[in-house]
């Protein structure tokens, strides 16, 4: 994704909302089920297309996939777009990540690397599994 696109989380959040609300995502995210874009079926179809063709994606299309996945998490689990810096090991090394923050659980999901995780796992179900784990987690908060 283009680095200038990652600079302002307010702009990114606005772009994500508009990308989904306008319906433009249905023309850009191959395999999406338009009336249920973050269902297991839809996410698996999108991921399958990404695994088979993602190596040809330009930075803009990768960015749009990230917007699609992040905005789905935000909407489904009442999150907020955030840009955060995380310390990743005892050496103090840090990494910047675009995230969805969930105030109700005070945790983050980094959306910056969802494409890489799917590619590394290559299961074709990583995105839907990720959503399912989040759903189970948030369900456990309401039953605790």
Automatic annotation (TrEMBL):
Name-wise, this protein is: Uncharacterized protein
Q: Which domain of life is it from?
A: Bacteria
Whose protein is this, by species? Actinobaculum suis
């Amino acid at each position: 994704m283009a680095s200038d696109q990652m600079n302002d989380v307010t702009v990114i959040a606005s772009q994500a909302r508009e990308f989904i609300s306008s319906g433009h995502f249905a023309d850009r995210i191959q395999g999406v089920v338009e009336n249920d874009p973050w269902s297991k079926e839809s996410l698996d179809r999108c991921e399958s297309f990404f695994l088979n063709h993602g190596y040809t994606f330009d930075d803009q299309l990768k960015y749009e996939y990230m917007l699609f996945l992040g905005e789905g998490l935000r909407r489904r689990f009442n999150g907020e777009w955030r840009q955060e810096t995380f310390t990743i090991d005892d050496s103090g090394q840090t990494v910047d990540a675009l995230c969805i923050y969930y105030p109700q659980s005070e945790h983050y999901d980094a959306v910056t690397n969802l494409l890489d995780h799917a590619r590394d796992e290559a299961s074709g179900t990583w995105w839907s599994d990720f959503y399912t784990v989040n759903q189970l987690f948030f369900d456990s908060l309401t039953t605790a």
